Amino acid sequence: MKRQLSAAAVALVGAATLTVSAMAAVPPGTYKGHLYNGATKLASAPGTVTVVGAKVTIKVAKFPIKCQGPTGKFDQLSAPMKYEFKGTLKGNVVSGNYISPLGGTGEYFTAKLTYAAATKSFTGKLGFVGKCQGTSTLKAKKA
Question: With CB atoms counted within 10 Å of each terminal CB, which end of the chain scores lower, N or C?
């Protein structure tokens, strides 16, 4: 009985170790992709995710936003803005809020991306909160 229990414990610890090591292995490099609004690819909105160690930088040259209209809703179209998020990987996820060092206006960027080892890609939501707002999905694969 003790041998069966010991063998089961060793197998469980081995499986847990393999799972943790597989999750934590996000290869450094550049991942390129596009923004999506639902299932629709936004043609003029390419994005990049750069991984160096545990540091992650997400950039989109033309991030779509809408500003607050007279009704109080965020429904007025606005020119796209430059999106930049800097954060840290925790396992295979990068998430949080990022305030630009030149900011100070209460505006900030949000991100919640997950790395999938099977497809070597990041997928998740990007956002901007402030006088204007925007949310899009980024899908980026290893370049």
Answer: N
- Assess if CATH 2.30.30 describes domain 27-142: no
Q: Which pTM was predicted?
A: 0.80
DSSP of the chain: -HHHHHHHHHHHHHHHHHHHHHHS----EEEEEEEEETTEEEEEEEEEEEEETTEEEEEEEEE--EEE-TTSSEEEE---EEEEEEEE-BTTEEEEEE--TT--SS-EEEEEEEEETTTTEEEEEEEEESSEEEEEEEEEEE-
* Domain range annotation of the chain: 27-142
Written as six digits, the tokens of 43 are: 């043609």
Cβ distance 135 to 119 under 8 Å?
no
Distance between CA atoms of 80 and 84, rounded to whole angstroms? 13
pLDDT digits (tens, 9 = 90+) for 83-103: 999 999 999 999 999 988 776
The Cα–Cα gap between 117 and 25 comes to: 8
Q: CA-based angle 62:63:66, to the nearest 5?
A: 125
Query: What is the C-alpha separation between 108 and 44, in angstroms, rounded?
Result: 22
